[in-house]
Structure formats: structure tokens, C-alpha cells
Design goal:
The protein is an alpha/beta fold. About 35% of the residues lie in helices and about 25% in strands. The protein has one domain: Rossmann fold, CATH 3.40.50.170.
Length: about 200
């Protein structure tokens, strides 16, 4: 399966994908970023994966930018889009180009604490358990069907950076696993509840 990864930051989740599934279950054929200073671009270059930057300021609006990204990915024959720390919202037209073929990793146990600053949201709510979710992307904000989740207990932590550091190894395990499931064709919509997915053995 030909995969594109969308990034905004330093790219630790991209690196996890490069180290685990790239060249095995999938081929990462493109890395796209909304930020020219994203450290993930250096990781893509080191792995000899084609990368392009799509700054919002170069386009009339987000929709035009997403058309450009989707066009580039389609020209490369991309079959699955992975959001690995991509901080820009995708427009419905982009999501529609890759139905049930966009996957995201989010640092909370969705549906709790969707959107930005999710770790701080969890701390402010006083939760005793935090976690990571890998989910399909729909037109909402972190509302797509859940593929995988994992939780850890952090009952006394009030430092968002400490929680983030603790969650990163979970992200680096779960995101590649979600990609493996999708590449193997093991993820299907539940016929009785389209909000849910069924993972076959």
C-alpha cells in the first residue's frame, strides 16, 4: 500500500513509521507539511522519501491548499494518508478524496478531550488515566471511528510535558499498528453501526 504522511512538527511519529512499516507492509511515498521548518522534513530527506511543503500563505484558503495536497498525493498513487502530528484541519473535500483512508493519532482517549491541547484538557479535568487513540478521520474534529486505544495511569501528574513524554511510546506503537491493519484490509465498517469499525483476525 502506498502511503503519504502529513506532518507539522519534529516527526517522531513519522520516524516510527519509517522504522517499522516502511518497506514492509507499506511504502511511504510522500511526506507533506504545512510548515517549512518542520523537523519531520529532515527525517523524510534522510529516508529519501519525496517531501513537499504547502504553506497556507501560498494559497487563497485552506480548501485551495488541500486541493493542491490531494492532487500531489493522487498523482503519486497514494492509497492511505497518515496524519502524524499534522496540526492543520482537513477540509471535507480532502477527506472525501480518501474515504476511510485517512488515519490519525491523538493523545487522548477519544471521544474525551478532542481537539487541541488535549493533554492539558485532561489534566484540567483531573483524570487519573490518560491515553492514545488511533482513529479514522472524518469531517469532524477527532470524531472518526476508533481503531485502537491504549491507556496508562498517571494519577498525580499536572505537567503536560511529562504526560506527553509518557504517551509518545504508545503513539509510536499504535500508529504503525493501525497502518498495518488498514494495509492488510482488516478494518471494515460495522454493518450494524457505521460509526464503528470491525477489525478482522
Amino acid at each position: 500500500m502506498r502511503v503519504a504522511v502529513l506532518v507539522s512538527g519534529h516527526g517522531s511519529n513519522l520516524q516510527a513509521l519509517l522504522d517499522t512499516v516502511h518497506g514492509h507492509e507499506v511504502e511511504i511515498v510522500a511526506v507533506a507539511s504545512d510548515r517549512a521548518d518542520a523537523g519531520a522534513l529532515e527525517r523524510a530527506a534522510a529516508a529519501r522519501v519525496p517531501a513537499r511543503v504547502f504553506p497556507l500563505g501560498n494559497y487563497d484558503d485552506r480548501a485551495a491548499r488541500d486541493v493542491a495536497i490531494a492532487g500531489w498525493l493522487s498523482a503519486l498513487g497514494v492509497e492511505l494518508v497518515v496524519l502524524a502530528g499534522y496540526m492543520a484541519l482537513l477540509t471535507p473535500s480532502f477527506v472525501g478524496r480518501f474515504p476511510d483512508r485517512i488515519v490519525n493519532v491523538h493523545p487522548s482517549l477519544l471521544p474525551a478531550f478532542a481537539g487541541i491541547r488535549s493533554i492539558q484538557q485532561a489534566i484540567d479535568a483531573g483524570v487519573k488515566v490518560v491515553g492514545v487513540t488511533v482513529h479514522l478521520v472524518d469531517e469532524g474534529v477527532d470524531t472518526g471511528a476508533i481503531l485502537l486505544q491504549r491507556a496508562i495511569a498517571m494519577p498525580d501528574t499536572r505537567d503536560a510535558e511529562v504526560v506527553h513524554t509518557a504517551l509518545q511510546p504508545l503513539e509510536h506503537e499504535l500508529l504503525p499498528e493501525g497502518v498495518r491493519l488498514l494495509a492488510a484490509g482488516r478494518v471494515q465498517r460495522d454493518p450494524d453501526d457505521p460509526r464503528r469499525v470491525v477489525i478482522s483476525p
